Amino acid sequence: MPDSGPHVLILSPGSKIALTRALAEATSARGGRLSGWEADPFSPAATLCSARVQGGPVEDPDSAEQLLEWCVRKHVNLVVPSRHDDLPTLAHAAARFAAAGVTLAISAPETIALCLDKVASHAWLRGGGFPVPTQASVAELATSPLAGGFPLVAKYPRGSGSRHVRVCRNPSDLAGLDPDWIVQSHAPGVEYTINTYAARDGRCLCEIPHERLLIGDGEVVRGRTARQPALMDLARRITEALPGARGPLNIQAFWDEGTRTATVIEINPRFGGGYPLAHEAGGRFAEWLIAEYLDGRTLPRVESWEDGLLMVRYREAKFFRAMPPR
Description:
By secondary structure, the protein is of the alpha/beta class. It folds into three domains: 7-105, Rossmann fold (3-Layer(aba) Sandwich); 134-185, Dna Ligase, domain 1, CATH 3.30.1490; 188-312, 2-Layer Sandwich (D-amino Acid Aminotransferase, Chain A, domain 1). Helix content is 26%, strand content 26%. It is globular and about 60 Å long. The model has no long low-confidence stretch (mean pLDDT 93).
């Protein structure tokens, strides 16, 4: 029999301690429990869950079906993805999950496809009048406006975070890149992440920019919230213009203080690595997911959050004297 409170499942919590803790606290406050779907038996974040189930990536219909069967059997109410590569399969399976009484906290397939393809997202942003860098594929570079315009930024077209990104300062730096890799003009200014939350009705409830002061392995290690109105307005307009954005998103942009201009370089339709900073500042997206999707509440906009909050990450050790229970 199901417990009286909600049963929430986070997929691949890995080392996402702060995100997992936020979900666990929001679920526990309603008398519920958080489970973790995790392949790694030594996942530190999974130890914060009430239960851990041995589960791997959800990148194909068969793995999505296995996940759905487990969710139905265990009376899961809400599933929260955290892994980039799981999103396309889950977005297309969302209607099937919903028919079985399981809600997936995910944007529409159109938004997922658009955001995960840097060529498509660049074209969409440019078509919507949003500021973007000049872009071409490696194959197109010689005949594009970027030809000879070093330094250039090269990216894998379906990568996430700062991984698979390289700065190319001369033609030899481009050697060996596949023709479909993209190259962009160097965006001037300071790099920011803007964490946003899209309500079920498409409204953007909150925008919290933070400056990326120090990056490690593609994620922010040191960041500071900044009430930058131009970036907040830009992120709100992008979030509300996307075709079916729902729940947490993060938008990467550069802000040039001298010219007072922004350049948008990426949209990620999921909880990002910098979400814990937004959460601590007052953007309680983890709680809002449960309030919207499980409590059925319509949430107001949130504009009061802590400006200038500095986050510094550090390494911590977790010790296992026995294999964690499955």
